[in-house]
Amino acid sequence: MAEWIGIGRRARRCYGFDEIALAPGRITINPEEVDTSWEFCGKKFSVPIMAAAMDGVVDVDFAVAMSKLGGIAALNLDGVQTRYDNPNEVLEDISKATPEKATNLIQKIYTSPIKEKLIGKRVEEIKKKGGYATVSCIPQNAAKFAKIAQAAGADCFIVQSTVTTSQHVATRYTPLDLHKFCKETKIPVILGNCVTYNVTLELLETGCAAILVGVGPGAACTTRGVLGIGVPQVTATVDCAGARDFYYQKTGKYVPIITDGGMRRGGDVCKAFACGADAVMIGSTFARAKEAPGRGFHWGMATSHGNLPRGTRISVGVSGSLEQILFGPAMVDDGSQNLMGALSTSLGSLGAKNIKEMHFVEIIIAPSIQTEGKLFQASQRVGMGK
């Protein structure tokens, strides 16, 4: 698989969504008769799409709305929702900042300390309104925040960082023991993010409920530019899915993987499932929803870092309601709305009855899939030419 890149050094070729396509099989199925649901810890969700734990995407009301539509939205416990009693005021300030001042303003806003009382309050607000309460934080805060969130009635806890391993080494602080954390936490724990076979296998051994796959592919993330690290999502998903399947064969325990980031439209979502994802996590597309707290803006989770920001604020605009983005009717031509319609139609066209069958469809390397016959779209910047 590897190619020589110089004397004594080889590198393997990895692939992203724009470089592959899905080949139709021998049969087709009525899209209305396929099953697009996924199962997570014994609970079935009709929408296998999660909204990312980003402040421009998820607040209490968004989490509730996503739950009622059949999906999951994660609330960021390290963000403005737990730092400010009235987060709408600072969200408004972020939306009004000029591009030149946005990062510095976000850095300043995120220096305000997290109020632990707001962690429980936000979880309780989601539960009171009938939502599925999923919350997320960095490993350094996980032990303390998980207890608060769990006591308040949280349904799921995500431990998330740029790169997560089960063997984190540090001398200036005590690293989070993921095995102990997953064992002692009484609600499902999702760990992320990772992109390789071996790390996925080691994270699966912790007893987690699911794993997030992806380093740096997000629309507002600059990790790949700042740190130079990451693996394109097609290869990352295939490799991590391979680890999941090996772990299942060895133990009989099936642990879902969730492709996180890099999906701009329905076709990317479908490709993620074909590569082995059990669910996907999306940020920028949901940031365009009327219900999103970002007011048409979206920023990376590490934008607020005081010394080395690895994210930026981008303008995504407001394209429609959350229901439109998930179920249509699509009012745009770029595939960013009616994601579930795209998924069910793709399943039917590929002859896959459900997401697990989607894992076995034929994938081809086809970089021309984005440009072949699309001259007018590209020149007019419509559809696939945007």
What's the helix and strand layout?
Blueprint: E1 2-6, E2 9-12, E3 20-23, E4 38-40, E5 43-45, E6 49-51, H1 60-68, E7 72-76, H2 80-83, H3 87-96, H4 99-109, H5 116-128, E8 134-137, H6 139-152, E9 156-160, H7 178-184, E10 189-194, H8 197-204, E11 210-213, H9 223-226, H10 233-251, E12 257-260, H11 266-274, E13 279-282, H12 284-287, E14 297-299, E15 313-315, H13 322-327, H14 339-350, H15 355-358, E16 362-365, H16 375-380
Parallel strand pairs: 6-7, 6-13, 7-8, 8-9, 9-10, 10-11, 11-12, 12-13
Antiparallel strand pairs: 1-2, 3-16, 4-5, 14-15
- Major sheet summary line: 8 strands, parallel, barrel
Return the CATH architecture: Alpha-Beta Barrel
Tally of separate helices: 16
Widest β-sheet, arrangement of strands:
6-7-8-9-10-11-12-13
Helical coverage, percent range: 25-40%
Strand content: 15-25%
